[in-house]
Give the backbone structure.
Amino acid sequence: MSHYSAFSVFKNAISGNRHWSRVWRDPEPKPHYDVVIIGAGGHGLATAYYLAREHGIRNVAVIEKGWLGGGNTGRNTTIVRSNYMMPGNTMFYERSMKLWENLSQDLNYNVMISQRGQYNLCHSPSQMDAARRRGNVLSGNGIEAELFDRSEVKRRLPYLDYTPQARFPIHGAIFQSRAGTARHDAVAWGYARAADQQGVDIIQQCEVTGYIWDKGKIAGVETTRGAIRAGKVGMAVAGHTGHLAGMAGLRLPIETHVLQAYVTEPLKPLVDTVISFGAAHFYVSQSDKGGLVLGGDLDGYNSYAQRGGLPMVEHTLASAKALMPSISRLKLLRHWAGVMDMSMDGSPIIAKTPVDGLYLNGGWCYGGFKATPASGWCFAWTIAKDQPHEDNAEFTLNRFERGYQIDEKGVGPHPNAH
């Protein structure tokens, strides 16, 4: 903490803040590591951190073709929650929620988690029945869930449209009070600093161009900064998983799609929670700077481009206006898009692959950011012990071969079915 003491802040302030030391090192790649993680987003950095902290494996490199946190970690709507219903997902996301709740203290870095709660709105009696079932499953697993009727939702969220003309009438909502948001950049920076302090090398501007093979086993990676040999190689490259796996001869049940998010001009505090609007696949929260953060559905085509099309802009803004007519005159300030790994059942993969020495973390669909801590924790366990933890035991690659999908109603990569 002395690095950021009051004296240090004062001393650097009067010298123009030109003498701060680097928060994490910028090392040259070594010829060999015990583990190489491809991808310096939240999942890759968290994996490296937990490999070092939980398993004592510190000879680790995280390599990134661009800059740290420049992929999906910085391109999402920052929502965290653990209200998943299907076996396999339920306790995994609850582990993530518990890790989120102590992450700032764990990393000694403020990730700005705000547990403001999340409402999943219901727009028909059948959706209320489905929400009741979900709530019972969550409660049965010790995860809090509350079901509210229309009058209670209207009391808590008076700015939604409850008029007889409402396009999607609100019948009620299921609520998780521990859900909320976290600052995505801070998550990447916090994990990077903590991993660096454990001895992990974070190597940016280092693109993987192929794998090093030794007697049928992957023994490292070829990169734009030279060959790096490793005992084990893990992939955590959301959006580009199929591309990297293809270099190893694997064809995965994953498609890459674009998912956009938007921020409006700032306004006074209005939305003090997270609201999901299932009928139109729309969600909204308000940032600390006042802008409304809006999310919608996938663009309906495959792409690796970090930009989306105007039809989805129109769809999302129409959904916002249908839910909250009072914001119809707000101006859109900016938007961005991330490239999403969409698995065929809407659930992720954290597992060894059929290729010896290669480990896979991908297929996150809409759940990537909220899963960051548990994803890293479980992937580190899987790499260190060569077997899954019970919380990711269902996230195998061969479940698609066996027909044991975990269908969380993410509906995989089919945008028109979401």
The chain has a mean pLDDT of 93.
